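Here is one chain, start to finish.
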Amino acid sequence: MDLHALSDFNAVVTHGGFGRASRATGRPKASLSRRVAQLEEAMGVRLLQRGSGTLMLTEEGHALHASTGRLLAEIEEAADAVGMTSRRPSGRLRISAPTFLAYETLGRLSAAFIAHYPDVRIEVIAEDRFVDLIAEDYDVVIRANPAPNTALAGRCFLRGPQIVVASPAVAEALKNDGPIPAVALLSAPDQGVWHIDGAEGARTLHTRTVARFSSISMVRAAALARAGAAVLTDYLARDALQSGQLVNLGTLRDRSVEVWALYATRRQLSPKISAFVQLLVDTYAGVNVPASIGGN
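Its structure:
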């Protein structure tokens, strides 16, 4: 059995699709697909059911992943541990992060990181624009739902559904017919349709965008100020929902958010990048919604 092909198969299963596995491993999507097909041919069984944009494991695929996935992960972890013992994180670590994450979390995380690795000098830039990681000399770029990029690898450290929220006053106005006011990011259309599942069952909301912002933090602030309904993650809306400042109207169907830490390549990944990305993964482990195997 080709262990490289087996590793690629388990990467596809672990990350929930060829596209996500490509981004996480830094390997081309076509190469992963070819390797998995070669593994299926060598074993004489079909491991994945492909079709309709959905990836599903066959019974044989489930059995193979169950028996080999953890073993391969342990081998990789052991190799990483051996390599890290002789290399301690040091030097400048330059990070670009969206404003909502930078202001709410990265100050505290950076303090914890440099306390553990005093030889590292962290620079965190809060920005919501597109960033060219290589040209602008960043070590790590954190972005939500980033477009696939074969030049970058990375790890998803936060994922979950998107929910529609509004102040109690705006939520009360939903009882009336007609479009509801909405606040959104710059890419939002003038009018939109949100299909949601909530306490009242499946609903369709027609929206009229009244304000657009470059940052999701400003979208949340506008929603809190009763300007309109908004689409946020549960993580961003949690405190306001608990305090009653916002109301959860329902979960958007077939839409979710994944926040990734991206870096130039996985090969010979520097200790400072590896350690910081692992800190992100560990920090958000308790707030992730488990991903199912579906979609690339």
